Amino acid sequence: MGVRKVKAAETAAALKQAARQQFAERGYLNTKITDITTAAGRATGSFYEHFASKEELLQALLADMEGQASDHFDSAEHPPHDLTSAGQLRDHLAVAWGVMRDNRAVQAALFESAIATGPASGVLWDQLAGGTSVLRDHLEYLRATGHQLPGDPVLVAAAMGAMLSLLAYALPPAGPGQQDSSPAPVYSDPDVIDTLTRLLLHGLAGSPAS
User: Fold this and answer.
1) Whether residues 62 and 44 fall in one domain
2) Which of 5, 114, 132, 156 would be a feasible disulfide site paired with 124, CB 3.0-4.6 Å?
3) Quick check: pTM over 0.90?
4) Phi-psi group of 206: left, alpha or beta (phi > 0 → left; psi -120 to 50 → alpha; rest → beta)
5) Axis-axis angle for helices 153-170, 189-202 (nearest 10)
6) Residue 17's domain is classified under what CATH number?
């Protein structure tokens, strides 16, 4: 890779990192492009060499999030796709939850952006349906093998994604000082993942063995 390409890649990475920081501190709607470039230590003009708008930058951050999840699910260690297995369901939820927690500022920005466009735009649905394609594929596999799903795979996957994403947005991360700084309760990541696994696997009726 040439020197120019290396510098361009470094600038793009710096702008993305600065955007995450500014979105976390100011919120997506209150963040200006100049806030991002100043935090990144870059000239304002350099932003437009990489992104046409703040929204395009947000979509690039979303693509990075989806890439994190895909890197895990596409690995050779990933087991066959049977979400009726408690272990495999928990593994999927843990990966999705971890990616959302690692990118909480991006999650919040996506919500802000989608809400600002209005419900009639369909942006939030597109995000849910597009971001849960891995879950949808697994659910379609189950249906093809004769398993009876509670609904259409697209809707079920989107509902699962909605539960995960809104919880990741609403719950503060567990850690030192978090309990005192937020009125929201603090749950550990295993608490959340185990609860969602049991809820999705058995529903409110509970396990047949219970």
Assistant:
1) no
2) 114
3) no
4) left
5) 160
6) 1.10.10.60
